[in-house]
Amino acid sequence: MRIDIATLFPEMCDAVLSESILGRAQKKGCFSLTCWNIRDYTLDKHRRVDDVPYGGGRGMVMQADPIYRCYEAICETAGTKPHVIYLSPKGRVFTQQRAVELAVMPHILLLCGHYEGVDQRVLDEIVDEEISAGDYVLTGGELPAMLVVDAVARMLPGVLPEDVCFEEESHFNGLLEYPQYTRPAVWHGREVPPVLLSGHHLHIENWRIAQSLAETQQKRPDLYADYLNKK
Ligand code: 58G
User: Fold this and answer.
1) Buried b (16+ CB within 10 A) or exposed e, 182-192
2) Which contacts qualify for 155-162: CB closer than 8 Å, 24 or more apart?
3) Peptide bond into 184 cis (omega under 30)
4) Which DSSP letter does residue 1 get?
5) pTM of the model
6) What number of other Cβ atoms are within 10 A of residue 116's Cβ?
7) What are phi and psi of 93, to 5 degrees?
8) Surface-to-core class of residue 211, CB atoms within 10 Å of its CB (0-12 exposed, 13-18 middle, 19+ buried)
9) In the chain, fewer beta carbons within 10 Å around the N or the C end?
10) Does the structure show a pLDDT above 90 at 163?
């Protein structure tokens, strides 16, 4: 899978997504990630990428042309048209389900706005879908873009260590994950649930399912109701 991010702050995205599991996965060739600087595509002699809003009002608006020229450069190097996602509080709120759907696409481009937003015309021209990280406003689309990349990339073949199966995890079957414990067996007087030390795999599995159900019912009654409805 090919993932591109178009942003005014490519170093910010590169730094975060080159660490740890996702950095190793890129080196292994599980996916390729390129962060593009929209400012490299301005024709303005002062490298400007924003201007005041027509109609007045506060702040600055990102101009259409640098974004479009950056998009064209990405299409040209890839030889394909990416599925273009604009990160915005107006988008559909991101879910595990959407991450699963994006993970089968060959090429996605995440467009990050800044300031008061982006000239609507370039959005109308190139954007296929708007995604929101949640119902709040941020200074830029970079953090939501990184969160989408993380959720999508970790489902690609070879990204997670073999013994970790994302399909067993939280939100995959619509339930929250059961609690985890590691050594020591007693810490600050708190014991690991004895069933986990029993070596009895069936009992352990049943305990974990019961914990998942109880945890979901208590912490996310909305998810729990959905889970019961789908059964
Ligand atoms: C209002 C203000 C609309 C994504 C700013 C659009 C992006 C939140 C999210 C903007 C974002 C989210 C400019 C800065 C988009 C533009 C960006 N804020 N909830 N802000 O995913």
Assistant:
1) eeeeeeeeeeb
2) 155/99, 155/100, 155/103, 156/1, 156/25, 156/30, 156/31, 156/103, 157/30, 158/25, 158/28, 158/30, 159/21, 159/22, 159/25, 159/30, 159/31, 160/21
3) yes
4) -
5) 0.95
6) 14
7) -65, 130
8) middle
9) C
10) no
Q: What is the pLDDT of residues 169-211, one digit of tens each?
A: 555 689 999 999 999 999 999 999 999 999 999 999 999 999 9
Picking from 89, 103, 97, the residue whose alpha carbon sits closest to that of residue 143 is 89
Q: Cα(99) to centroid of ligand 1, in Å?
A: 19
Strands 83-93 and 129-132: what pairing?
parallel
User: Could you identify the atom of ligand 1 that is nearest to the CA of residue 141?
Assistant: 7
- Burial label, 28 (beta-carbon count in 10 A; 0-12, 13-18, 19+): exposed
> Tokens 């069936």 appear where?
202
Q: Let me know how long the chain is.
A: 231
What is the Å distance from ligand 1's center to 205 Cα?
A: 42
**What is the pLDDT at residue 171?**
57
Q: Which residues pair with 32 in a beta bridge?
A: 2
Using the mean position of ligand 1's atoms as its centre, give its distance from the Cα of residue 1 in Å. 26
Which of 35, 37, 38, 36 is closest to 66 using CA atoms? 38
Provide, rounded to the nearest whole percent, the portion of the chain with pLDDT above 70. 96
Give, for ligand 1, the residue of 137, 142, 148, 149 to mutate: max count of ligand atoms closer than 8 Å to Cβ.
Answer: 137
Tell me the H-state helices in the chain. 10-17, 20-27, 64-78, 96-102, 120-126, 142-153, 201-219, 221-230
Q: What is the pLDDT of residue 193?
A: 98
Q: Which atom of ligand 1 is nearest to the CA of 62?
A: 13
